[in-house]
Structures are given as C-alpha cells and as structure tokens.
Design goal:
Blueprint (H helix, E strand, L loop, with lengths): L1 E2 L8 H21 L1 H15 L7 H9 L10 H14 L3 E8 L4 H15 L6 H15 L1 E10 L6 E7 L6 E3 L13 E9 H7 L16 E2 L3 E20 L4 E3 L12 E18 L3 E8 L6 E5 L1 E5 L2 E5 L6 H20 L5 E2 L9 H5 L25 E2 L7 H18 L15 H14 L1 H25 L4 E6 L5 E6 L1 E4 L7 E4 L6 E7 L4 H18 L3 H11 L6 H10 L3 H11 L6 H31 L6 H38 L1 H49 L12 H4 L1 E5 L2 E5 L5 E3 H4 L1
Antiparallel strand pairs: 1-11, 2-21, 3-4, 3-12, 5-6, 6-8, 7-8, 8-9, 8-10, 10-11, 13-14, 15-16, 17-18, 19-20, 22-23, 23-24
Helix pairs in contact: 4-6, 8-10, 13-14, 14-15, 16-18, 17-18, 17-19, 18-19
C-alpha cells in the first residue's frame, strides 16, 4: 500500500460521507449474505465438529431413550480428496510480454519475482491458497488478499499474499458480474477487538461511544468490529498519443522533447482503489491509496449461483449432508443390533434362579465362570434349566441401506471409487485413469474457479510491480526449478550506441505483460516423469544414450547429476557438441575458434602460393626441345601432385572442422592442444611439399644431365674435312621414327634418344 496523507485533501465532511457509505454497504451485504454465512457455518460444523451430524432435537430424544448417536464421517474424506488433489497440482503464475516495450527477459524476471513473493517466509502464499481453497470446498467460498509492507528497516516495500483464516470475516460486494469478482466495488475484512485492546493499539483514537454504536459493528458488551474497508472509485483519465508514437496517461507523461507534440487524446473510464481502517463504523483510523484498479481481496468458490438477484454459494457437501445423516442412522441401528446380540435374555423358572437373582441379573454384563441354578424344587422334583432366547439374525436391509447411502453420497458429490483410491471393476491403467478423470470432472469447477482466483492474484501483483519496484534495487527471483538468484531491477547503464545516454536494464516499469495460469504437476514431479520416460526410451533405443546421455542424467534425481551430465557432454559426438556449444552461445560461433580457423586457412593459402612458386621455378628449368619428354613426365607428376594436394586440402579441412567442434566445447581446457595440432599439421605439410619439390628437382636435374651427356657425345664426333663438309648434313640426321627421335651418325650408326639415355 502507498502511504498518502489525506488529511489535507479531505475534511470532516468527506470522512462523514465515507463512514455513511461504509455503514450502508456493510449493513446491506450483511443482510443479503446472511443465508450463505449460516449455511457456511453449518457445513463447517457438520464436517469438523464432533456431534454436529445429528440434529439437536433428535440427539436429545435419543439420549432420553439411552440410544447412541454414532457418526461415520465420510464427507471429510471427500473434502480431503479434493483439497489434497489441489495441493499436488498447484497452479503456477506465468508472465508473457503483451506489447509496448515488454521483453521476454523482463517477463521471466517478473515471473521469478512473483514466484519469490509467493514463497516469502513471512507470508507464504501456499498457506493462503490452501486455506482459501479448503474453505471453498467445505463452505462454498474462501478468501485471501494481496498487500504491501515495508521490508524491514528499509524504505522499500514488498508485496505479500496473506491468508484469511476465517472466511466469515470478509463481507464482499455481491453485485459483481465478472467470474473472478474483479469488478467488486467494495469489500470489508473485519476483526473483533476488545475495547481494552483497541485503546492499546490506537491510543490516539477518539473514544468509542458504546451506547451509540451501530449494532452491526459490535459484538457483546465490550467487543467492537474494526474493518479494513476497500472501495473502488470511478475516475476519468486522459489517454494521449504523441507524434513519436508514444502513448500514456496525460498526468503521467513526462515533458516531451522539442518537436514532439500531442496528436490524439481520449477520455477513459478507470478506477482507483482506496483503503480505510474503520473502527465501529464511527471513525477512520488509517487510510491509504491502493495500487491498481482491482480490490486486492480475492475469493475462490464452489458453486456460484445468481438467482433473482440473490447470490448463492455452495460447497462440496451441502447436498450430501442428508445422505451422511441417513448413513449415520443406519450404521447406528446396525451397531445397536450387534451390541444386543450377545445379550439375549434367559428364560428360566422362577424356582430355578431363586437365591441367585443377583447373579442372573448381571449375566449379560458380567463374565461369570459359573451360572448356578436350582435343579430340584422343595419336593425333589426336577426344575428345567434356564434357556437363552435365540437371537434374531441381522436384518440384511440395514446393510443395503448403508450401501445405498454411500453410493448416494458419491453420486451427489460426483466422486467414485477410482477417485477415492478404491478398487473397482477396472483392470487396465487406462481404464482406471479414465474413471479417475470422470471423478475429477464432477469436482472440476472448484479447480476452475481456483485457477481464476490465482490468475487474478497474478494480475494484481503484476500491476503492483511497476509501483513498488520502480527504483534500482536488488531482488530475489526464483526459477521454475526452484533455484534462487539475485537480479538488479531498473539498473542504469550507458547506451550501446551512445555512451552519453543512459538506459535501464531489467526495467519493470515499462511494457505490457499478460498473466496466464499453468496447472498440473509441479517441477519435481515433471522431472521424475521425464527421467522415467527417458530411461524407457534409452532401454528401447540404446544409441540414444550416445546422443542425449547428458539429458538423461540431468533428469535423474541423484546427487551431482549436473556434474555427471557435464562430463558425459564431453564424450558426445563432435556434431552434437557443436550444436550444444552453438546453443549455449546463442547460436553464434566462438570468436576464438573463428580466429584459429582463419589462421589455419591463411597458412594453407601461403603453402599453396609457395608450391605454385616452386612449380614456376621448375618450369623455367625445363626449357628447350631437348626436355619435351621431361615436360610430359613433369605434367603427369604435377597432375598427381595436384590430386594429392586436393586430397590433403580436403583432409586438412576435415581436420579443421573436427578441431573446431572440439574447440567450441573444450576451448578453455584444450586450447594448447589445438594449437599444437595446427603446428604439427603445418610442419608435416611443409615437409611433404619440400620433399616432393626436392624429388622433382633431382629428377629434372638427372634428365638435364642425360640430355647434356647425349649432346656431348654428339659434339665429340670428329669434324669432317672441308671437302666432305657438304656431306655432313646427310651423314648426321635427326628424325622422328614412329613418334621416337632417331639420330643417324656419320658412320651410319643409328640410335634413339632413349637408348642414349
């Protein structure tokens, strides 16, 4: 709640108006709701107060007849079944971005903050929910409320969800139309206080005039009612749109910058909520303005029926009370019959028990080892022995009666054997589940109304968060898995593109968010179910363990499950590790890995350029017609080398890809090993290239030497004389013979270049 000094805003006349309004509304709702309150009280006593399942006049009559009034309370089990089913399937409040500047990150923070509010040790919402739901199941209606209190010694306020233990202390507006009651215009939460306690708690309050006190606001001689009075007041507000597209309430919009003007506006009907502490309906002790537009007193109910302007609430057992009363009567009559069976009277001649009247008088109540009797009269004639009357057989009609009443109660309530854990005719798991679902359908309106109430609670809290958490502060949030962490709200930080401007991180004061309810098993239950199903899947398909072994271990409820999963993750195939690493990094490649890959590619290009340069040098060495054969052979070798180089390049790229996958997962632990692998690869590739180039140079030099030797042999032949000189061209001739070069010497000898080599 927000502290507001209203004394300067309202005068004595305003307080009088508020008090008159409060007294009139309180009297009206008390009268209109009296039947519901009486039935609520009777229902609670019928279930939880011993002896209240028999009408008082019948009880007194049976006591005069010395007949018992036994109770066989079956309705309590029905109530516990519905209530405990709700406790096993607690609804969760979820927050989603709905527009404006809302974001998924802030929605998750608000969701975690709401979960932290619900689990506040000072006022855990679990107690409020359970208490309210149980009251709705038994009596038809239960309550809790949302409030704000200062957090310890700080000036920060925190939101709390507080239970209302006694539903009869709440008097709420009955003219609401929304199913969740969010349009209630007023509500009272009353407290009975003795006059001495009142003076001690509010010493500065005006003395209460007990004689003039309204009868609706006092109980007994020295007890008065102090009420928390909530009221919702209509208010018109102006919604404006600026030229830059921004919209908001005119009274809350900051002064626009230069050039920004108002382009549109409209009047909107809204509400504001006020709270007053009223004593005896005669004076206002405290007052606050409440955040939001909804009265933070939330109700959950069973049957909510509106008939001719009268609202009727009804719980689980209202219609089953008669069946329970008849069951008690039938079971009591059976108990009486069974109790009287071993006490059948004796029939005996008066003379037979003469002198033993005291013993035979107590024969049905005392365990005598011997029951004496006189077997002869005074004349010596035999006297018949006392004989016990044969007891009547139990009437089977009472057993049928009992079964009918039990079946009648289950039918009235809508819960059958399977819903109560009783064995029926069903044999398969699906059949049992279907029968349980049928039972759940009969009582599902309790859960449905309860979910509406939780959703309204979430909307109220979400609307309060921008009010009470509008400054920079550190808060606890709780994740779905129950893990707690600290988060800074509304944290100022430099703008990424303009360091001179400030932005707010985790700003919960902007954006529109929607609240929904997720019902079903809790996180731990879902985790156990997931672990069981994953185990079954691994048993049916063992290769799944190699691809998802870490997920299987994480789902197990064992110690150090996360540590074991982390180690299994290191053993997954490289493609899976690469996918996991990319997911952890938001789908972006590791910058260090990218740098390593770029360096490796650059080194490969440098090696290729060096090889090309060596090839060019080899080409320069192999010039002239004499090296045609060497050229052919060299081309073949180059082709083979290029093919080998391409294979090496492909192998190198595969190796780089494998190294990339390993680096993305084990960057911190294996970076040294990765660098060593790259260096080894470079050295091996350089050695291979240098070896191949050396071999090629050696072979080329050998071929050149052979050609030079051949030429030298030709040159060493004696030169012809001047007369014979014209014949030299005819005596030495080089021609192609079948594709082979043939040399004809002056002496007529012939030889090929291959033979000369």
């Amino acid at each position: 709640m927000i502290d507001v000094d209203k004394d300067s805003e309202r005068g004595e006349g305003d307080d009088t108006e508020i008090l008159d309004e409060a007294r009139e509304r309180f009297a009206r709702v008390k009268e209109d709701d009296q039947l519901n309150r009486d039935n609520y009280l009777d229902d609670y006593h019928f279930v939880y107060s011993p002896g209240k399942q028999w009408a008082e006049d019948i009880r007194q009559q049976r006591q005069r007849w010395k007949e018992p009034c036994l109770e066989f309370n079956q309705l309590k089990q029905f109530v516990n079944q519905v209530v405990n089913d709700q406790r096993q399937n607690k609804p969760a409040i979820l927050v989603h971005p709905a527009g404006g500047d809302a974001s998924k990150e802030v929605a998750d923070i608000e969701q975690g903050l709401i979960r932290s509010i619900e689990q506040d040790p000072k006022s855990p919402a679990e107690i409020a929910y359970d208490t309210g739901f149980q009251a709705a199941v038994v009596g038809g209606r239960g309550w809790w409320r949302v409030c704000a209190e200062y957090d310890g010694k700080s000036f920060n306020q925190k939101i709390l969800i507080k239970p209302i233990q006694d539903a009869l202390t709440v008097y709420g507006d009955l003219d609401y139309q929304e199913p969740d009651g969010s349009d209630k215009n007023y509500a009272f939460v009353v407290e009975s206080i003795h006059k001495d306690d009142f003076q001690r708690r509010w010493p500065d309050a005006e003395p209460v005039s007990w004689d003039d006190l309204d009868s609706n606001w006092k109980e007994g001689k020295d007890i008065l009612l102090v009420a928390d009075y909530y009221r919702r007041v209509p208010k018109k507000r102006t919604l404006v749109m600026m030229s830059d597209g921004a919209t908001g309430w005119k009274d809350e919009m900051p002064k626009p910058p230069a050039g920004i003007t108002e382009t549109a506006s409209r009047e909107v009907d809204t509400f504001e909520v006020e709270w007053f502490k009223i004593a005896g309906g005669s004076q206002i002790l405290e007052r606050y303005d409440v955040a939001g537009e909804v009265i933070p007193v939330i109700h959950t109910c069973g049957d909510d029926i509106l008939i001719q302007g009268k609202r009727i609430y009804q719980g689980l057992i209202r219609q089953a009370r008669d069946a329970q009363a008849m069951l008690n009567f039938g079971m009591t009559q059976q108990a009486i019959h069974l109790a009287l069976t071993p006490k059948a009277p004796y029939i005996a001649p008066q003379e037979a028990i003469q002198d033993y009247q005291n013993i035979w008088k107590n024969a049905n109540t005392e365990n005598y080892s011997v029951l004496p009797y006189k077997h002869n009269d005074a004349n010596g004639n035999p006297i018949p022995m006392p004989q016990r009357v044969q007891p009547s057989t139990p009437d089977s009609g009472w057993r049928d009666w009992t079964q009918q009443m039990m079946s009648g109660m289950r039918s009235i309530i809508g819960m059958y054997e399977a819903s109560l854990g009783m064995k029926g005719n069903e044999v398969s798991g699906k059949a049992i589940a279907a029968r349980q679902k049928e039972g759940d359908v009969g009582t599902y309106h309790f859960m449905d109304n309860f979910h509406r109430a939780i959703a309204l609670t979430g909307r109220i809290i979400q609307s309060w968060i921008p009010v009470y958490y509008d400054t920079e502060r550190i808060v606890h949030i709780i994740g779905q898995d129950g893990m707690r962490k600290m988060v800074t709200l509304n944290q100022s930080a430099p703008h990424p593109s303009d360091p001179l401007q400030q932005i707010k991180l985790n700003d919960v004061t902007v954006g529109d968010y929607a609240v929904v309810i997720d019902s079903g098993p809790g996180y731990m239950t879902k985790r156990q179910e997931t672990a069981e199903k994953l185990t079954q899947m691994v048993q049916a398909f063992p290769p799944l363990m190699q691809a998802a072994g870490d997920l299987v271990v994480k789902a197990q409820d064992i110690q150090d499950a996360d540590l074991i999963a982390e180690r299994l993750e290191m053993m997954l195939p490289p493609p899976v590790q690469q996918m996991i690493a990319a997911k952890k990094d938001g789908g972006k490649p590791d910058p260090v890995t990218l740098q390593k890959l770029a360096q490796a590619q650059q080194q490969m290009q440098q090696m290729q350029q060096a090889l090309q340069a060596m090839q060019q040098e080899n080409q320069q060495l192999k010039s002239g017609a004499q090296a045609d054969a060497a050229k052919i052979q060299l081309k073949a070798q180059e082709s083979q080398h290029e093919a080998a180089l391409r294979a090496q390049e492909q192998a190198a790229m595969l190796q780089i890809q494998r190294e990339k996958a390993i680096q993305e997962l084990e960057l911190k632990r294996q970076i040294a090993e990765q660098e060593a692998q790259i260096e080894i690869y470079k050295a091996e590739l350089n050695a291979k290239v240098k070896l191949q180039v050396t071999e090629m140079e050696q072979q080329t030099q050998l071929q050149a030497n052979q050609v030079a030797a051949a030429n030298a042999s030709v040159e060493s032949t004696p030169e012809p004389t001047e007369a014979a000189a014209p014949q030299t061209p005819q005596q030495i001739h080089i021609h192609n013979g079948g594709g082979t070069k043939v040399i004809t010497f002056p002496d007529g000898r012939k030889a090929t270049i291959e033979e000369m080599q």
